Amino acid sequence: MRQLLLALIATGAVAAGAPALAQRQSADDTKWITVCVSDNKDEGQSAPVVLKYCTCMNNKMSNNETRSITQWEKANPNAQEACSKEAGWGR
């Protein structure tokens, strides 16, 4: 139930986000961002911080990428660090 609630919050936040962001996000992007939010739900960050981090990571990835955000971030520590900073992760 908690995972479903977090996924709904993430989906709602993506849908209710800034119009420019909403225009750039496809249904596939939303799906991967929601998975990333779920993967990071127990990392001790607020939902908005996790959502911003996952959205940033998704935006840095190629549209042809087949790995999940969580898989991709492990191979791209510079992107992970930049998105963590942008999202305010750890504050």
Termini gap: 28 Å
Strand tally, please?
0
Helical coverage, percent range: over 70%
Number of helix segments? 6
The secondary-structure class comes to mainly alpha
Helix and strand topology:
Layout: H1 2-16, H2 19-24, H3 27-39, H4 47-60, H5 69-75, H6 77-87
Helix pairs in contact: 1-3, 1-4, 3-4, 4-6
Describe the structure in your own words:
This protein has 91 residues and is mostly helical. It has 6 helices and no strands. Helix 3 crosses helix 4 (47-60). It is globular. It starts with a helix and ends with a helix. Residues 18-22 have low confidence and may be disordered.
Properties at a glance:
91 residues; mainly alpha; globular
Short structural summary:
By secondary structure, the protein is mainly alpha-helical. The chain has helices spanning 2-16, 19-24, 27-39, 47-60, 69-75, 77-87.
